[in-house]
Inverse folding.
C-alpha cells in the first residue's frame, strides 16, 4: 500500500430533468497525491433528492451536508488502502455530523441521508486511489 493525501475536493450540484419533475445530483471530484508524487483523480455521482419548487428545505439541508463533507475530506491522508480512509472517516468524522445535523429546522437529518451525501465522496476516493495505482479505467468503481 502507499501513503497518499487528498489534495483537492470539488463538489458540483447538477439539477437533471425527469419525466415527473427534476432531481438534484451531487458530483464530486477528488485528487490525490501519493508519497512518490504521483497524482490520481476520481469522480463520484449520486442523486440527492427530487427538487420541489414549493419547499426547498430538504434540498438546502442536503446541499449543506455535502458542502460540510467536502470540507471534512480536504487534506486527509492515509497510509494504506482507500477503504481504510473511508472506515476512519466513518468512525471519526461521521458521528460529529450526526450531532451537527441532529436538528435543522426542527427536522432530524437521518443517518441514511448523511450516507447518501457521503456516497459520491467514497466513490471518487476509490476511483482516485485506483488511478494512483494505474489501474485501467474498467477496473475503477465508476466504470460502466
Amino acid at each position: 500500500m502507499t501513503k497518499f493525501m487528498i489534495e483537492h475536493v470539488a463538489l458540483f450540484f447538477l439539477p437533471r430533468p425527469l419525466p415527473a419533475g427534476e432531481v438534484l445530483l451531487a458530483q464530486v471530484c477528488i485528487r490525490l497525491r501519493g508519497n512518490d508524487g504521483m497524482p490520481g483523480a476520481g469522480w463520484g455521482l449520486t442523486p440527492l433528492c427530487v427538487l420541489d419548487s414549493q419547499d426547498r428545505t430538504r434540498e438546502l439541508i442536503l446541499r449543506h451536508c455535502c458542502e460540510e463533507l467536502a470540507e471534512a475530506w480536504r487534506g486527509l491522508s492515509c497510509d494504506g488502502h482507500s477503504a481504510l480512509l473511508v472506515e476512519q472517516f466513518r468512525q471519526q468524522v461521521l458521528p460529529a455530523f450526526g450531532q451537527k445535523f441532529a436538528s435543522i429546522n426542527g427536522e432530524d437529518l437521518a443517518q441514511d441521508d448523511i450516507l447518501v451525501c457521503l456516497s459520491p465522496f467514497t466513490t471518487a476516493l476509490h476511483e482516485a486511489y485506483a488511478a494512483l495505482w494505474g489501474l485501467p479505467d474498467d477496473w475503477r468503481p465508476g466504470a460502466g
